[in-house]
Design brief:
There is one protein chain. The protein is α+β, with helices and mostly antiparallel strands and about 290 residues long. The chain is built from ten helices and nine strands. It folds into two domains: about 90 residues, Phosphorylase Kinase, domain 1, CATH 3.30.200.20; about 180 residues, Transferase(Phosphotransferase), domain 1 (Orthogonal Bundle), CATH 1.10.510.10. Helix content is about 35%, strand content about 15%. The longest helix is centred in the middle third of the chain and has 20 residues. It is globular, with a radius of gyration of 19 Å.
């Protein structure tokens, strides 16, 4: 590789990175990275370049560890996960992650605040579970599923694609913050055990998805509260609030509500154990 570092000028439309990727423009922004749409001049079509600045890491060793953690994602094969193609660690500590180009709109942008029809919610949930099955088969976890990390392609019958897989736990691990520390992920979508510092796992991914589905059905999150402490206290409840309690006008079958609730139990022993199990419950709710 011939790139030792990257400046803002290198990211302008028309610029070519790594002697291969021609920048089309900024695609999306996150709290820790910026992603750009690019054309692969070596014939693999459009892709996304996700840039993690060197300032995100304390030293080059941390950056290299994060890069290694992301390489495992190149083995994940699912039409519902934006697959990693390459990972590059530049000399200055900047990391470039090359992935498939996800659909333009996030679920947050696509949905707004409206509630969706039950069948649409189930279809989205089953697709997300299919992505998780592929992720978990590689002994990986996404770690931060929420409407911003789910992208939607309306042209393909509302196909959904997970992005940013492994980034939050990968950064946590690279920074050597330990398995028992501050919350990893997003409080509104994270299970109660993560508030105690537990690392994300298969069941926390399921919980993330169940929270998203609850929100899609009702138009609101399961748990009231705006602060970290408020949300934590709400999530101490063993079961999620009834949907009618959070959205009185919602019309949802008891089967679908029960299926979604099975992924939202506070006690991990009572929560769905796998994405396969959760998908099965969602499909059963659709069949009724």
């Amino acid at each position: 590789m011939h790139t030792k570092s990257i400046s803002l000028f290198d990211l302008a439309p028309g610029k070519v990175l790594l002697d291969r990727y021609k920048i089309s423009g900024a695609n999306r922004h996150g709290g820790m990275s910026t992603a750009f749409e690019a054309a692969d001049t070596k014939g693999k079509g459009s892709c996304e370049l996700q840039l993690f600045p060197a300032a995100l890491f304390e030293n080059k060793k941390q950056a290299a560890e994060f890069a290694r953690s992301m390489m495992s994602w190149m083995e994940v094969e699912s039409s519902h996960v934006a697959r990693a193609r390459e990972v590059h660690a530049l000399d200055d500590g900047t990391i470039l992650l090359v992935t498939e180009l996800p659909p333009k709109a996030s679920l947050k942008q696509w949905r707004g605040t409206k509630a969706l029809e039950a069948d649409d919610v189930i279809d989205i949930g089953v697709q997300l579970c299919a992505g998780l099955v592929a992720i978990h088969a590689q002994e990986l976890v996404h770690g931060d599923i929420k409407p911003h990390t789910i992208h939607v392609d309306d042209a393909k019958k509302t196909k959904v694609v997970l992005v940013d897989g492994g980034i939050t736990p990968g950064l946590w691990s690279a920074k050597h913050l330990g398995d028992k520390t501050a919350l990893i992920g997003t409080p509104f979508y994270a299970p109660i055990e993560q508030f105690g510092g537990e690392s994300p796992d298969v069941q926390s991914d399921v919980y993330n998805v169940a929270t998203v589905l609850y929100e899609l059905v009702t138009g609101v999150l399961p748990w009231k509260g705006k602060s970290f402490l408020d949300v934590f206290q709400e999530k101490l409840q063993k079961t999620p609030p009834p949907m009618k309690a959070r959205a009185p006008k919602v019309d949802v079958s008891k089967e679908l509500e029960a299926a979604i609730a099975s992924g939202l139990m506070a006690d991990k022993r009572e929560r769905c154990k796998t994405a396969e199990e959760f998908a099965k419950r969602l499909k059963a709710a659709k069949a009724t």
